[in-house]
Amino acid sequence: MDHNKNETTDRRIRVLIAKPGMDGHDRGAKVVARALRDAGMEVIYTGLRQTAEMIVNAAVQEDVDAIGLSVLSGAHMHYFRDVMALLKEKDATDIIVFGGGIIPDQDLPKLKELGVGQVFTPGANTEDAATYLKGAVSERWRAQGEG
């Protein structure tokens, strides 16, 4: 069974990778985007300096299954909180949110409480991100009766 595709609709997992805020370093985001693409997913990379509104609007417009936020600036709580609130406001809470970057361990439980699915910190393996998304999206599709 190909976990990158919804067996009912033959749709591949669609992921939006975004760099919120003023942080200008996107190498990690590009590495993750490439790894997810290599794992068979459709990946939309929004580029640098995105607002939460831009990210959520793009995610809804592109009908993605997941949003990955890359935050190195220390403003992760702000951006994740805003993205989660906007997804709720737009009735798009079925979109899985995950992230990566420089995020202190003590903030991980707070992000989980916000509804963030998984956070990958420096040294994480890109295969782990692909495996996480395949499992989380497949579970979501099954719960929604799509797969």
TrEMBL record:
Its EC top class is isomerase
Source organism superkingdom: Bacteria
This protein's UniProt keywords: Cobalamin, Cobalt, Isomerase, Metal-binding
Family annotation (Pfam families): B12-binding
Where is each B12-binding domain found? 12-143
**Gene Ontology terms, MF aspect:** cobalamin binding; metal ion binding; methylmalonyl-CoA mutase activity
Which co-factor is required? adenosylcob(III)alamin
Query: Which CDD domains does this UniProt record tie to the protein?
Result: MM_CoA_mut_B12_BD (cd02071)
Q: What is its EC number?
A: 5.4.99.2
UniProt keyword Isomerase present: yes
Q: Which NCBIfam families match?
A: acid_CoA_mut_C
Instruction: Output this protein's name.
Output: Cobalamin B12-binding domain-containing protein
